[in-house]
Amino acid sequence: MGEPCARRGSRATRLAGDYIVRGAVQVVGVDGKRVLETTVKAGNLFIVPRFFVVSKISDADGLDWFSIITTPNPIFTHLAGRTSVWKALSPEVLQASFNVGADVEQKFSSKRKAEEIFFPPPNSN
């Protein structure tokens, strides 16, 4: 498996729908136990119940997905892409943190790509 997107908790969300084109997914229930871990195929849609946590994980070809959530003030965190927290860490820190060599760190860093987050326009009422 490749690089994960940060886990999303849906405590403020009534419902979250994820459509994944390629990659894998892991869902953890309110009791902390894994309720789903699977590789998804194009066309798979799944619903994440409130208070469950989801992690989307890339495969060798990357990860393509979109999510629909029902909250007026969503908060997103990503481990990859333009806003990645990994960009703040030097290659040496990543190597030491994960106890890997420069070749593995380089492969890890090369897998990071861009993401986009779209919000509907605010209500003008």
From TrEMBL:
Pfam families reported in the protein's UniProt record: Cupin_1 (PF00190)
Family: Belongs to the 11S seed storage protein (globulins) family.
Protein name: Glutelin type-A 2
Chain ranges of the Cupin type-1 domain: 19-103
GO molecular function: nutrient reservoir activity
UniProt entry keywords in alphabetical sequence: Disulfide bond, Seed storage protein, Storage protein
Signal peptide: none
Alphabetical list of Gene3D superfamilies matching this protein: Jelly Rolls
